Amino acid sequence: MAKAVGKSGPITVCVINLKGGVGKSTITALLSRYAFNTRGKDVLAIDLDPQANLSQGLMHQTYSTFLSQKGGSIVEVFADYMPPQGGGGPQPLTAEAVTELILEKDERRLDLIPSRFDFSDALTNAVRPDPRILAKFLSKNFKSKDLILIDCSPTESVFTTAAYHASDYVLIPVKPEFFATIGFPLLAESLANFRRNNKGHAIDVAGVVINNAFYDGGNDGGPEKGRAMRAITQECANNGWHIFSKQMYHSRGYPKLMRGDYSYPGDAALFWTFASEFFDHLGL
Ligand SMILES: Nc1ncnc2c1ncn2[C@@H]1O[C@H](COP(=O)(O)OP(=O)(O)OP(=O)(O)O)[C@@H](O)[C@H]1O
Ligand SMILES: [Mg+2]
């Protein structure tokens, strides 16, 4: 799975599952921080969801300032220009105009292209945005990054296609519960469609990560988790999708970390064992 890093540009991964609430935004935020802090990578995180959970999870209290100051965001990336800001008319799109700095050390940064709630308007507008616009923008502006992580929304739209166009790999979080695999056939079909229509583009499923799982055994894993795990294993085998061996357990530490409270993460501290496996798997 290892891919040459550096000269050829960043490895880009979209985090997706066409089922809601499985931990896509939490995992994108924590993997971004881990890649920057522990792996020493230059990272760009992209929020492709109008719910803007990733933006809030990385920016915390500065997100409301960003909204009130009308900073550039993913909305402008899809519009392909910066609207007038009090003189000079529309401006060309630049990386600086649409990124927020989250962390910085030496020459490395963790940057974010944030989302806004009005991003969903782009979907209801009569003109369908160009699904290649994000890939084009990234190829022009972010070749020096080591890693780009894209948080997707749980519903399929032109933005899902945009995420595929920009990505080398797909990471699929899943929660081991009843209906866990309901989004898998849709996702497999959506990827197959994309590959059919874009034969020159190699996009691979990096793997499936089990998130929000109760412990095995005892009275908290239980038969429901066992049932869900069997269904997940079967579906992944059918699709040829790798399952990461390290699971992320249910922990109140995750919402705390997303809020920016790093005081006591509890079992969420185990996230780093998955993160380490994930980056080793990608050879990053
Ligand atoms: N391992 C976990 N333990 C406990 N809570 C978790 C865990 N993972 C995620 N959560 C919580 O579950 C909720 C959904 O997580 P998150 O927003 O990351 O999912 P999502 O897949 O991005 O959702 P959506 O489909 O709405 O975008 C959040 O409240 C989050 O804090
Ligand atoms: Mg989300």
Keywords:
284 residues, alpha/beta, 8-stranded mixed β-sheet, binds adenosine-5'-triphosphate
Radius of gyration, CA atoms, in whole angstroms: 19 Å
CATH class: Alpha Beta
The CATH topology: Rossmann fold
Mean pLDDT comes to: 91
Distance between the termini: 10 Å
**Share in β-strands:** 15-25%
Q: Please count the beta strands (DSSP E, at least 2 residues each).
A: 8
Task: Classify the secondary structure makeup into a structural class.
Answer: alpha/beta
**Which word captures the global form?**
globular
For the biggest β-sheet, the strand order reads 3-4-2-5-1-6-7-8
| Relative helix content | 25-40%
For CATH, the homologous superfamily is named as: P-loop containing nucleotide triphosphate hydrolases
- Low-pLDDT regions: none
Report the CATH architecture.
3-Layer(aba) Sandwich
> Looking at the chains present, what oligomeric state does this protein adopt?
single chain
Helix-strand string: EHEHHHHEEHHEHEHEHEHH
Largest sheet: 8 strands, mixed
Count of individual domains: 1
Per DSSP, the total helix count is 12
Unique bound compounds: adenosine-5'-triphosphate, magnesium ion
Produce the secondary structure layout.
Blueprint: E1 11-15, H1 24-37, E2 43-47, H2 53-59, H3 62-68, H4 74-79, H5 95-98, E3 100-105, E4 108-113, H6 121-124, H7 133-141, E5 147-151, H8 158-166, E6 169-174, H9 184-197, E7 204-213, H10 222-239, E8 248-249, H11 253-259, H12 271-282
Parallel strand pairs: 1-5, 1-6, 2-4, 2-5, 6-7, 7-8
Antiparallel strand pairs: 3-4
Helix pairs in contact: 1-2, 1-12, 7-8
Bound molecules: adenosine-5'-triphosphate and magnesium ion.
Residues 24-25, 49, 51, 53, 151 line the site of magnesium ion.
